Amino acid sequence: MPTSADVGRRAKRARPSRRPPSAAARAAARGAARAAALGALLIAAAPALAAPAATAWADGGHGGHGAVSGGGWLTAVIRVVALLATAAVAVAALLRPRTGPPSRRLTAAVSVAAAVGAVGCLVAVDRVVLALAPAAVALAAPRLLPHPRRSVAAGTVLAGALAAIVASGSLTAAAPGPDRAVPGVPLLRDVALGGARPSILVTPQRQGWNLVHAGDAPVSVGTSPDRLSATERLPGAPGTWRTVWLPSGRSTLYVGAGGRTASIAVDTGRRGSASPRLRTDGPECASAALGALVAGTRGADVPCPADRLDAADADALRATVAFIAGRNVRSIHLVGDGSPRSAAAEAVVRQACAKAGVTVAAKAAADRPVVVAAGWSGADATLRDLARGALRGQGAYLAPWLLTAPLLAVPAGQMLPLRFSPRDPEPLRYAAELRSRFPDETPSAAGFRAWRGAADTGPARLYSASLVNLMPPAVLARHPHSGTSWLPGGTITVATGPLR
């Protein structure tokens, strides 16, 4: 029979121990708490991380590791799913000290998520190191689940890799590479259509109507591969053109020719809508943007030349009126088009005429020179009327911004004031670089000024244009814009000394 001492000893042994936990136990508890906190934070942040990552990757990583191209919704879904699957594996690995030994169902689920995340990273991430690291660790994570410390280490590596991917994608979106669409900036691309690689210019690449510019050979363009419209000639402009409506943000422009179709990722950003005068002043604005792009600067930094009258051009118009008056001409006929630059130019010409005693007549006449202060489109119509005799006039004096081959090729006896010679080394270098980047394009005053980055400050002289075609017609048709000439098949020569 037990004594009282035995009962006391048994009660003492039955009491729970109140000894403090060991250092190893405390460290394990802290590690589990940190893992749980990090896992909860990753779960909460995963949707937020997916959005910028999908945005940053929408260009497809041209020239990089990623195999998915284009900016369509399917591509974005693949990338977001890959990111979330990898995040799920990281969470499961980080929470391992908290959840205990993994069940077969959990291991299977983590294995599936790891496979999806690994394949998605290899396909979607356009940097090899950032793609391989999370893919390898994600595939190893299911086997590491039975080992708490190894599992937490794998989860930490995955979390760090995800953070690096998102940070890298964000930086890429902020400072796109040469093959990525800069939001709201004119876009120049070469597209592969069978054996041809036509150059395509999209300007101004903003929400609303945009001009798509191609070379002399028409292509079909549109925002749906099933509804494409052919580019066509515009008055006074080189190449072919088409207006296309682009939505806000990222979208895809399709280009078709010869039964083949290619796509271009575009991004209009969140800036204001495009100008409504695309078919009149748009080609000249596009030529200025193209000159800036060829020079390696952003076309958005170049204002449209038709928006204001440059001081140097105003002085050249005054000097032209003074030259006309010096030839004992008592009246002129003035042509404008209502644009801000044209309206200002007309005012300058009228003031110069009043000062020189020259009348600005409302009607043209055989003894009256025609002064053209319109844009490319209006000038083209006026010059063609002069060439076929529908508009009578004693030659045509063009504004300086009308220096472009399609206008000078019309036989209307035109002259224009320039502060540089198209035969000088710098204009010839611009023409060569322009044609190397956009083979069918002809130089223009707007493009040269944007390419140069500043207006020419030399004295203005009058130049005349003439067509002197020494090549057979068949050869000229096959090579219409060869060389560095500003007027293919013709020449632009100085006709006067410095104007005063």
TrEMBL record:
<keyword id="KW-0732">Signal</keyword>
<feature type="transmembrane region" description="Helical">
    <location>
        <begin position="107"/>
        <end position="140"/>
    </location>
</feature>
<keyword id="KW-1133">Transmembrane helix</keyword>
<feature type="transmembrane region" description="Helical">
    <location>
        <begin position="74"/>
        <end position="95"/>
    </location>
</feature>
<keyword id="KW-0812">Transmembrane</keyword>
<keyword id="KW-0472">Membrane</keyword>
<protein>
    <submittedName>
        <fullName>Uncharacterized protein</fullName>
    </submittedName>
</protein>
<feature type="signal peptide">
    <location>
        <begin position="1"/>
        <end position="50"/>
    </location>
</feature>
<feature type="region of interest" description="Disordered">
    <location>
        <begin position="1"/>
        <end position="23"/>
    </location>
</feature>
